[in-house]
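## retry 2 of 3
previous attempt timed out at serialization; input unchanged, resubmitting
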Amino acid sequence: MNKPELRGEIDRDRAADLGVDASDIADSLRLMVGGDDEVSRFRDDKLADDYDVTVRLTGADRNNADTVSKLYVPSRSGLVRLDSVVKLHESLTAYRIEELDRQRQVGIRGNISAGYALADRLEEITKAVAQLNLPPAYTTMVIGRGRELERTFTEFLIAFALSVVFMYMILASQFESLVHPITILLSLPLAVPFGFFSLWFFNDTLNLYSALGILVLFGVVKKNSILQIDHTNTLRREGLERLDAIMQANRDRLRPILMTTLTLVAGMAPLALGTGPGAEERRSIAIVVIGGQSLSLLLTLIVTPVAYSIFDDFGAWVARHRRVRAPEPVKA
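## retry succeeded, writing output
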């Protein structure tokens, strides 16, 4: 990570006595060791081309500290040898100096070993940095995939909250009820654990694409509950009792639910089994959707009718309580 160099320390008092400027010393070293590409141009008439003329010491001379120290630098009284005013010594310097936002930075890069995830490694790095007790002028930040992971996680939480709010608003407007959307959205917390279990079972990780798969799962997993509750309300409006309507609606909607679920799983199967460039990203989305939808199917078929019955009883209790507390009209 370091590069050897010859570092020159100017004897300021002696250089002032001899009339040598520091800029002349720097220009001489730059010209003889580093070279100058703007000395002149050579015209090759045979090839009809121009070439830059570079002035520079030969490789053997500029790599020898003794030879460099014997160079002459201009002064007000003539030429002075470099070793009369400059002491050269070997040193080490940074291979390169990186800057970000006009501040110097040192980047530490690494890969994640097998069996670990990026999120927990970032947490360990943060703990290690805290133990260094860096001075107040030093700051640390995460870049690259780590920064994208942190930003993606924050944006995912925002998108998750907005998706739940929007789904509730749309369902409330469609069913003209504030209770039925809650019954439908109960399928979401049932499907998410199964999605995570699918990632663990197939040895996948929670990344950007699997997070997108969870959002897709939110959109498709509630369709079963919508079919059940909508048909139940229709049967109750036709005169059936609540229990009979629930049982009949589940029998009528079982086949469409199974058909749509199998169709979704079959449509995601090529993404889960595909190979080629980008297959890992597509596989994460498919695993979450397939696992979450398939494994939560049985629970949603049972939980949705039970939750519908419980919320309906709660709504009836609230209505009776309001009627009891309402004052009777005064007759004239």
